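BUG-586 | component: ligand-complex export | severity: low

The export step for adenosine-5'-triphosphate jobs runs without errors, but we want the raw record kept on the ticket for reference. Input record follows.
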Amino acid sequence: MKFSILAKLFSNLENTSKRLEMIDMLAEFFQDIKNEDHFEDLNKIMYLLQGHLVSNIKQFKKMGVAEKMIIEALSLHAGIGKKKIKNILVKEGDIGATAEILLTKKKKQKSLFDFGEKSNSEIESIDIAELYSQLRKIAKTEGEGSQDSKLGILRGLMSKISPLETKYLLRIITNTLRVGVSTQTIIDGLALGFTGEKETNRDIIEKAYNLHPDLGDITTLLAKKGLEEVKNVKITYKIPIRMMLASRVPYSEIITRLGTPCIAEYKLDGERLQIHKKGNNITLFSRRLLNITEQYPDVCQVIRQNVTAQNVIFEGEVVAMDPFYEKMRPFQVLSKRRRKYDVKEMTQEVPVCLFVFDLLMLDDIQYINKKLPERRKILEKIIKEKDELKLVKSKRIHSTDELLEFFHEARNEGTEGIIAKSIKEDSVYQAGNRGFLWIKLKGLEGGKLKDSIDVVLVGAFYGKGRRTGVYGTYIGAVYDKENDQFLAFTRIASGWTDEIMESLMEEINNYKQNQKPKGVICEDKPDEWFSPAMVIEIFGDEITISEKFSTLGYSLRFPVFQRVRYDKGIKDITTKAEIIQLYNAQ
Ligand code: ATP
């Protein structure tokens, strides 16, 4: 498929905020693909629609192209001064839109004088496959002279495509391709386009996606083999499944929600791992579904030696421990294990224990649809407990009093609190869902916000006095799932040491933008803007109605920085809907 067709779709999608219109556009697009019967680029199309170059369970090598280089390429390609480009960029806030405006203007001027010039629609465009191969080249080019080579490839690409395509090409390269359509909407479009029916069939596709979170693969299967095959999608070893998450409700409602008896488990303060064991081969997936096996060679070894099942997929929380494996250490200590170098030394400096809490698959049998007690029973059978490997502490609960007693015990042990879980017949593992079969409890006092909130940093103000030259205040945004936007929520100015502040600044400067990034809604005017990338966890006093952050309409009193959440993607942060829920619960 030509890239121009996709660019047109992106543009149409961007020009509407109505979800139903988006679904219809997508459906029509997929219907055309179906009628023409050519599916070879379908994978890439789906990833691009999701705003990525590759599936979200894989990582594409960084392009290594700075905004400065794009301005240079644009200037050389169109014969426009860099200053002019920068001026438009400040106004537009997006290099893609800037390029489109300038190139379209240039074309119009040219065609007034040059009748031989091709119009936009006559430009031949390039195949999506060719676009990918050029992008790969850009990413691979390293070392001396690489900047010139990258510039050359970029200019070559620009010369083959229209202004509209250039807009999206540049967004792809700068990792800001966000068309504003959520995965839910894409799935609705897929159902309608490929099957003609949305209401039931979208759930079938979503279910398959939860078990195999690669929308490219699922769509290709749907296109080539039809919905019946999509129904048969199963968990596959070495492909992570989307994780089940917990909701929050006031503690007095937990028992009513779950019924009795239920169970409660310690909520440990570490990193979630989904473990795929195939014989001696172990793969560890993070909360973001990325392969992080190399970070934990010691965990892999302990699994090889102490999990008796040959092939199994299970989940647990890996927690930093003191050298005698008696006390759990906070997440901050565990985060030292994120380093890519000195892994071996780190395994000694920060010993860990894996606390297992769920079973998803054993040999060829899926366990996600079985009730929790059944899953736990198997875990008890296949896990030989030792210092570095344990089952998470779990207790049967019959009343709110018992629940609270267990909560205090958990807190005294240095955990974050508890997760209460249903053990009824329908207590299945709900892949990719934040439902009410798992309810987390981190704090008790009513009124005050006792749970943390995850925000993505979108802007910062420089500090004053001792903190001159360093960011003293950040703006955190929450995610509006419906509109695929990040809405400013609160200013955060405390909770960090000078050391953390400096390292945060160093890291976030990689995402600096000259203007408010696309997809960010913020009524504040910070000194610096950042594209949404870094997620942090904050605590606060209470959620209040906000006139300042008027799009969201809520803000947080006395926010305090807790930690950076490297394990969370920007779309995994607290959502607008959750903020409203939390506000109502106060
Ligand atoms: P939080 O910000 O509260 O850590 P989250 O958004 O990462 O939450 P939640 O659904 O709110 O995810 O809480 C579930 C998380 O708690 C899991 O992802 C896991 O990392 C951690 N956890 C700790 N102990 C348990 C447990 N016993 N069962 C399930 N998850 C647990």
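Assignee comment: Attached the raw record above. Residues 245-246, 265-268, 272, 287, 317, 357, 392, 419, 440, 452, 454 surround adenosine-5'-triphosphate (CB under 6 Å).
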